[in-house]
């Protein structure tokens, strides 16, 4: 004789597998861990500071006015 199957349990298992598959796809599509996001943000800030440190004129300084005593 065949194996008895509880249909309610089978539906729940099927739905659970579908949700897990969808979650796995979303992790691949959108996922970065919190630590990865924080590391990227810190790296961007460090690069911005390094770039600003190499500027010849700071952006807050007004441009030099042309010399009118010629």
Task: Describe what this molecule looks like in 3D.
- By secondary structure, this protein is mainly α.
- The chain has helices at 7-30, 34-53.
- The protein is rod-shaped.
- The protein starts with 6 loop residues before the first helix and ends in a 17-residue tail after the last helix.
- The model has no long low-confidence stretch (mean pLDDT 87).
Features:
70 residues, 2 helices, single chain, mainly alpha
Blueprint (SSEs and pairs):
Blueprint: H1 7-30, H2 34-53
What's the helix-strand series?
Answer: HH
Query: Could you tell me how far the N terminus lies from the C terminus, measured between alpha carbons in angstroms?
Result: 109 Å
Radius of gyration: 30 Å
Biggest sheet layout: none
What is the helix tally? 2
Low-confidence spans: pLDDT under 50, at least 5 residues? Answer: none
Q: What is the 3D form? A: rod-shaped
Q: Structural class, from helix and strand content?
A: mainly alpha
Mean pLDDT across every amino acid position? 87
Helix content: 55-70%
Please state roughly what percent of the residues sit in beta strands, choosing from under 5%, 5-15%, 15-25%, 25-35%, 35-45% or over 45%. under 5%
